[in-house]
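hey so u asked for the seq, here:
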Amino acid sequence: MQTLKYQLGKIIGMTFVVLGSIFFIIMLANINNGRNELVDGLLGGIALGGIPALAGFFLWKFSRIGQRKFLMNKYERQILEAASQNGGHLTPTELAMKTDLSLKESKKVLETMQIEGYSELKISSNGSIVFYFRELDKGDNYAESELLN
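ran it, structure tokens below
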């Protein structure tokens, strides 16, 4: 249900962006050469197009962030348990195999945890992206990994 809320936010946000942009272009296209009409057209374009487009963009952006944080909170325990079993290291593929998250969702959730400062990014010797949870490190499964940040 929560993810549906975020999906609707993204859809509504993008709809506002598209419609706002169309209204802005229509208002600018209807401007004639008169100075008063130019000011009226610009103000109308901003009011009917620019403001809804900007509001739609922020709604879309915050819905994306909210969805990632929701998934992170919902699966936090499973993510940490999976990382703990791997000596503090976890790939999106490993997370997808151990939870009911898709591979894409796993990657987004792990990226959010990295952005929030809960993990660090590493590259394994075979080139895989590995999320490293320093507090859960109990071994050297990915000893050759290099820190990216």
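The chain has five helices and four strands. The longest helix spans residues 35-74.
lmk if thats what u needed
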